[in-house]
Amino acid sequence: MLRALPFVIQFALLVYCLIDCVQTPSCQVRNLPKSTWLPLIIVVPFAGPVGWLIAGRPVRTRQWSSDQPAPATRSDDDAEFLALVEASDDLHEQMLAEWEAQLREREDQGRDRDDDSSR
Q1: Are residue 15 and residue 56 in the same domain, yes or no?
Q2: Are 11 and 38 in the same domain?
Q3: Structural domain count of the chain
Q4: Which of 32, 41, 59, 73 is the most buried (most CB within 10 A)?
Q5: pLDDT one-digit tens code per residue, 94-115
Q6: Is residue 51 located within the same domain as residue 1?
């Protein structure tokens, strides 16, 4: 099993990098064109996928630039959202109370039938 580990790692790395490269927009690929990275990842074992991760993959940052929209406000800070959640909770409580009443009614009817049949 230990002998197969390098092959499993190589295959997993190949699949991950291949999918990542295919899904990356061509304008974001670094150093080489995307059409060069794909065969490089497939043909050159280990070095191709590692090269993609180090030199070809776009740098992913979490900073907001001026051309991107600002992040939305958190929903737990939005008064309208909180009112909607509270109304939804009230509706669920009301439905649950109705279901419980219906269940009790059916159970009572079932007991009445059992009492009548035992006599």
Answers
A1: yes
A2: yes
A3: 2
A4: 41
A5: 999 999 999 999 998 888 777 7
A6: yes
On whether residue 65 sits in a domain, the answer given is: no
Q: Two tokens at 113?
A: 């039938």
- Give the separation between CA 37 and CA 34, rounded to whole angstroms: 5
Q: Provide the Cα torsion 70, 73, 74, 78; round to 10°.
A: -170
Same domain, 89 and 43: no
pTM, two decimals, is: 0.49
Condensed to tens digits (0 to 9), the pLDDT of residues 8-40 reads 999 999 999 999 999 999 888 999 999 999 999
Q: State what percent of residues in the chain have pLDDT above 70.
A: 85
Domain limits for position 81:
74-119
Residue type, 68: Q
- Complete DSSP assignment for 23-62: HS-GGG--SS-HHHHHHHHHHSTTHHHHHIIIIISPP---
